[in-house]
Amino acid sequence: MTLRQRTWQPRRSAASRLSANRFDFDSNSHPTPKETLRMAAHDLLKPYDDLRVLVTGGAAGIGLAIADAFADCGARVHICDASETALAALVDRPQRPALGATLADVTDPRAIDRVFADIAHTFGGLDVLVNNTGIAGPTGGIDEITSAQWEQTVAINLNAQFEFTRRAVPLLRNAAHGGSIIALSSVAGRLGYAYRTPYSATKWAIVGLVKSLAIELGPLGIRVNAIQPGIVRGPRMRRVIEARAAQLGLGYREMEARYLEKISLRRMTDPDEIAATALFLCTPGARSITGQAISVCGNVETL
């Protein structure tokens, strides 16, 4: 599925040219220092040129913000999403870069295989995998949550990251600048989250997955990091606040104010701030950053 056609022309920035001079690549595509070259700070902070990026759950919210940010920087971006309606809404967006897309249920291995078949056909490889797909899961006490709700949350939030990662590694190991895997976790993956147990459990598990994979894949030149958003402005957070407000018998505004009181900066995070962090993790300045869980949340103190 192509959302809108565009002519793609490769570009080479100063960062790309200097990086090409800085590293030799062995048979495992693992960058080895060749010579010391100083790069200007603004070059260190530019994403590598000609990146091929896959964003799961990329048709809305944080995923779409990340996809658009990479596309705006000249990357070729492919998204997958389970919502046909959300994908259709992206067709012919004015003044926006084109995105490739595959309709896919991330709990279906055959659908995931189709995503990678599309990637192989259109890109011929992959430089960046953004594991973004996730759901909020149920809101309720542990004695109220059903086994089906638990299993669905684990399947979408955690198992899908495993399935996409294991298929992506053979492609990422051949990335010109070393592959990058970015996993969306949450501040619920560093804090306890009462009444959102399935969600929090999966987000903690993602951090464990990231730290283990960083050790395993580092010798292949593949970096693996997690981003931990906090309370992010958007429709999904609104639904979470509404559900919690209903549970406590409060109005929406009162419940929203309680959430904001838990943030040191007293404001929600915008999706574009998460996207900017994902971009940074694909710059020369981040080439030594791996195995990290980076909170982008205004310092959420408790949940």
UniProtKB/TrEMBL annotation:
Spans of biased composition, class Polar residues?
Answer: 1-10
Where is the sequence biased in composition, kind Basic and acidic residues? 23-32
Low complexity compositional bias, start-end: 11-20
Keywords attached to this entry: Oxidoreductase
PROSITE patterns xref list: ADH_SHORT
Which EC number applies? Answer: 1.1.1.30
Q: What class of enzyme is it?
A: oxidoreductase
Q: Name one Pfam family in it.
A: adh_short_C2
Write down the InterPro entries for this protein, in alphabetical order: NAD(P)-bd_dom_sf, Sc_DH/Rdtase_CS, SDR_fam
Asked if the keyword Oxidoreductase belongs to this entry, the reply reads: yes
Sequence similarity: Belongs to the short-chain dehydrogenases/reductases (SDR) family.
In Swiss-Prot or TrEMBL terms, this protein is called: D-beta-hydroxybutyrate dehydrogenase
Organism of this sequence: Burkholderia singularis
